[in-house]
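Title: Comparing notes on inverse folding

I've been comparing how different people in this forum approach sequence design from structure. To keep things fair, I'm posting one structure and asking everyone to reply with a full sequence. Here's the target:
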C-alpha cells in the first residue's frame, strides 16, 4: 500500500509541475505568416488573462522556421535571460526553445507538416 501512495504522490507532483500536463493552458496551430500572441481576445495564440501582456508579440512562420518577435516593451525570457527576436527550436529538436512572457511559457511544436504552440 505504501508503494501505491508513493507512486500517486510522484505522479501528482509531475502533473502539477510548471510544465506538467495540469498546467497546460492551450495548444494553437500556426498559420503561414504572422501569428499574434497575447492575452487579448483577438490573439491567434491566446495566453491566459492576467498572466501576460495583451500583445506579447508575433510568431512569423515561413514554412521552414518560426521566429518570435516580442512586442516593444515586452520582457521575453529564454533560459532566464532576455531575448529579442529569436528563431524558435521545436520540441522535436531535442532542445526546444522555451519562451517565458509574463507568467506563462510557450514552446513550438512540429507535427509532420504542422507547426503549433503549446502554452
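Reply #1:
Here's my take.
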Amino acid at each position: 500500500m505504501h508503494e501505491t501512495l508513493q507512486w500517486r504522490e510522484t505522479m501528482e507532483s509531475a502533473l502539477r509541475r510548471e510544465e506538467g500536463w495540469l498546467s497546460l493552458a492551450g495548444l494553437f496551430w500556426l498559420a503561414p505568416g504572422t501569428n499574434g500572441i497575447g492575452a487579448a481576445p483577438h490573439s491567434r495564440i491566446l495566453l491566459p488573462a492576467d498572466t501576460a501582456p495583451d500583445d506579447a508579440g508575433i510568431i512569423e512562420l515561413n514554412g521552414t522556421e518560426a521566429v518570435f518577435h516580442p512586442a516593444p516593451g515586452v520582457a521575453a525570457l529564454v533560459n532566464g535571460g532576455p531575448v529579442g527576436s529569436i528563431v524558435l527550436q521545436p520540441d522535436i529538436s531535442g532542445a526546444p526553445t522555451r519562451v517565458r512572457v509574463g507568467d506563462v511559457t510557450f514552446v513550438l511544436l512540429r507535427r509532420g507538416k504542422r507547426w503549433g504552440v503549446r502554452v
